[in-house]
Automatic annotation (TrEMBL), chains A, B:
Its main location: membrane. This is Magnesium transporter MgtE. GO terms for cellular component: plasma membrane. It is found in: Cell membrane; Membrane. Acts as a magnesium transporter.
Amino acid sequence: MTDAPTIDPRDPEEGARLFDPDEPWVSLREALEADDPQRLAAIFEELSLSDGLRALLQLEAEERTSVLAALPPELAAELITEAPNEQAVDLVEHMEAGDAADIIEELDSDIQADVVGELDKDDADAILAEMEPEEAAEVLRLAEYDDDTAGGLMIGETFSFPNTDTVGAVIRRLTSEDEDFERYRGQHPYIIDEEGRLIGVVSLRNLLTAKRSTALPDIMVVPMSVTTDTPLEDIQDLLDEHEFLGLPVIDSEGKLVGTVSRSAISDALLERSESESLRRQGVFGDELRSMPLILRSRRRLAWLSANIILNVIAASVISVYEETIAAVIAIAIFLPMVSDMSGCSGNQSVAVSLRELALGLTKPVDVFRVWAKEVSVGVINGVVLGILIGIVAWIWKGNAFLGLVIGLALAINTVIAVSIGGVVPLLLKRFNQDPAVASGPLLTTITDVAGFFLVLSLATLMMPLLV
Amino acid sequence: MTDAPTIDPRDPEEGARLFDPDEPWVSLREALEADDPQRLAAIFEELSLSDGLRALLQLEAEERTSVLAALPPELAAELITEAPNEQAVDLVEHMEAGDAADIIEELDSDIQADVVGELDKDDADAILAEMEPEEAAEVLRLAEYDDDTAGGLMIGETFSFPNTDTVGAVIRRLTSEDEDFERYRGQHPYIIDEEGRLIGVVSLRNLLTAKRSTALPDIMVVPMSVTTDTPLEDIQDLLDEHEFLGLPVIDSEGKLVGTVSRSAISDALLERSESESLRRQGVFGDELRSMPLILRSRRRLAWLSANIILNVIAASVISVYEETIAAVIAIAIFLPMVSDMSGCSGNQSVAVSLRELALGLTKPVDVFRVWAKEVSVGVINGVVLGILIGIVAWIWKGNAFLGLVIGLALAINTVIAVSIGGVVPLLLKRFNQDPAVASGPLLTTITDVAGFFLVLSLATLMMPLLV
């Protein structure tokens, strides 16, 4: 919270002159056509980052490239940082290597690594060749780590001092004008030995009270740290338990290689949660509407085509009972209702399981406990819904036995759907499948097959009473 | 990152002696029955916070209350903090007011306000009566603000100094042993005038370089701040644009009333995203399996019962065409397929819109732009899926015209589903409805009605060719 600007960047009067807030891209396009980079920059300065990104993404792909190239690299870097990762990569890879390199140099080192790590090798090499060799090497080093580990989430910058330094050295660096202290994101000073191994941390309190001549090892304490391969969940657990703003990251030899901040962890968790929410509906690659039409279509189709096969399996149950339907046409009305209603009941259980898995409150070993808990809900809801739909069917078609068939089928199928729905995500997780992707289609197929079978076999049994 | 502990709290060997990591609640129950609070505390000390909460929630409701009352209040407060808000309230409201007050006094002030704000008035009053009057008044003050505003997200503690103080006063407080500096979560020192109005902030750099006798107004800068009613999204925008660890919060008179931290904002966004993900499947109140069975059942049923009505509307379309089904029984097989497939296609568009709304990349004014973009995807996917399902129907039932009817119906209905699916969340948002709750059921009803109508009316038209 240092050196804060004093102007509200979202002054509505100021904004009204430069662009229409509903369609700011119209003004962007005009400035681009007028070859007026200053006006372009002025428009983005007035917009909030998310509004700026919204405006940028409403432009055509070539226009976006031209706008980014015309902006000051720091401003372009802020827009790239605001964009979801896949969109950021798409923006960068369409630029000239030189322009892209200027922008990438302005990104925080964790974002640099995310973007460069996702680029085609040729694109990445071309951009890295345009960068300072030292910085390019640093980007390559960070890009090697897995996304959801401390290595993938850390920034390479560490606020560190050799164990031969004194308090005075720390204060000199903190107060020097040569260094942008903000990029350390509130780290405390870390102390390293001659091999670069992390051996201590100095608290702000000790820094303020010690004499300038005090050797750092005399006031340091042993810090808590994580290794480059520590997974996101474990870092989250540590930060839940301790009020740290971040943690130092060490490699397998104990060398200090970076720091991972609390905000990077929160952001990664939020991204994961939103990405999972998309995958549950069969949308992959964090789709945004600004991505190419063919890519969006193809990704959605891949999942839908697989769904056709599951639908054919379910429908084949109906096919077996065509004679029953021919005898009691009204059954055809209730088949989709029973399958839809049980699907919804089951998906409620899936949602609760996915959330409890994410919170760590349920683990794959809890399969039977979850099943038992969901059966109770399934029985209550099955009875209530079965009675409701049974009465609807009875009144609608004037046949109490039809009501009985439909109601009983929905009641039983609700118990099946709710109990299996709670368990499916745990089983998928145990077998290392993504529960967000597979739970829904798997559950729906099971409840469709069971629902169609229950309605049609009960109807067949009670046929004399139904016609 | 101060005074870090040096011991890894999750030593597996140590843990193995105290409890079974798969079922730690068995040991909790034993310790509870043996009336051994020290062993209880020891077990929780060994568990990570999420594992500790998981264990606690596996116990019966009365056991949970006894365990929390037996633990040291700081430890119980950590577990309450880890729990989602509704579960936290449930845990607290079952305790004796005195025990609850001890724990609530240990919570951060933003969590205190969240929990107390959700309690029944009687429970809240009983607990507040057991607290220090000053602290109780503070909790009540914070509980009044809306959850998703700066007031609801802030902590009441501010690291503030009168404008008559010097640098020396700040350093004395920073280094005094009487105050827990961690609770300020890395705030910089704020300067207030005699009326309590926020007038400045001092950077760490200035603090370290200025003489102790320097008056604070001489080195302060004007801080960026938010007001108590600034919404979550706006705070997020500000933090996206500036590398602050948090922001001071002022009331309508400019008085400094609290600070909102970056981590509180990230946590609120994550909670909102996960809560929305549950509501999309018709699960309300952030259900956990540890909540009472009847409550879980009732909440899920409320949504499912409304769903029955929508299903009856859709099914009534089938009812109109019973004669067509009687003539071509095979139609009954494909009705659920067409409605399910188009529902899935539409829900993909819904998911993308919900995410773009959350990211601020789409706004309600974009209805026609979104519609146009989705129609393109819908046409491509409709043609592909229509051809696929048409071939399936043709081969399966040996009638090319049946394939044509089913394929054409699915193709048209996919365009409808995809384009409407993209637009529905925007329209709901414009009319201040929760798009996460209503989009799915609304879309499914539209695509069911349209799908049934398309299949059955096309089949009726082409009847001579189908039988």
